[in-house]
Design a protein that fits this description.
This protein has about 270 residues and is an all-beta fold. It contains one helix and 25 strands. A seven-stranded antiparallel sheet has the order 1-22-19-24-14-13-12, with no helix packed on it. The chain has a six-stranded antiparallel sheet with strand order 2-3-10-5-8-11. A four-stranded antiparallel sheet has the order 4-9-6-7, with no helix packed on it. Keywords: Isomerase. It holds the Pfam family KduI. This is 5-deoxy-glucuronate isomerase.
Length: about 270
Amino acid sequence: MSDLIVKPFKQPNEEGTLLTVTPESAGWTYVGFEAVKLKAGEKLKRSTQAQEVCLVLLSGRANVSTNETEWADIGQRMSVFEKTPPYSVYVPNEDFYAIEALTDLEVAICAAPGQGNHPARLIAPEQVGVETRGQGNVERQIHNILPEGQPADSLLVVEVFTPEGHWSSYPPHKHDQDALPNESLLEETYYFRVQPEQGFAIQRVYTDDRSLNETLAVQNGEAVLVPRGYHPVSAPPGYEVYYLNVMAGPKRIWKFRNDPDHAWLM
């Protein structure tokens, strides 16, 4: 199996964790990611320590509280494939978050270094930027949960819905050089859901010199690490593909470079 694919645990651990990525496990510096599943009535409480966190309610309803604020009964979709924007909560470093599941709940915990510049806040569905990107068989739906225009120290968070037979993160692009204003250095995780669940997505991760050149068959509930290189995604006919992207790097800006071999597609 490719080292770029992170598989879920066979069973959630005692905190409900399904899958986890840390900078140490990924061999990089900035991005952490975790998928947690709680049953109705279960709770999770953690300190953010040096990390800012974006809690994305993938499915289900919950009460969420931090050091100074709490939000009761948030969450509306019961499946990511309802394709409605999620409820999310931004939590700064040196804070805590407590989650109480009101229904069966799946939450994504997106983390990156924080600097304490922004208070905790709710990101309601109406605050999520919704756009259709591309056309034809590269058309996909984007939910900008925590884009660079919204307050955070490091994190960028977005979710993408790729219809069956379509491509996304396409034409192939990369953001692995700290070379602004032309390109930014951003580590990235992709967390995948596939409908029906027995399906798969295809993701290629490759560099110009092909020192990294992998084509991955990604199953429902798996994550992919993109430490560098171009990283397009394909949804096979018959299967819809969802993924949640988490990005972070030394500067909080998304500037990418298209693969020159395929730039003509623009």
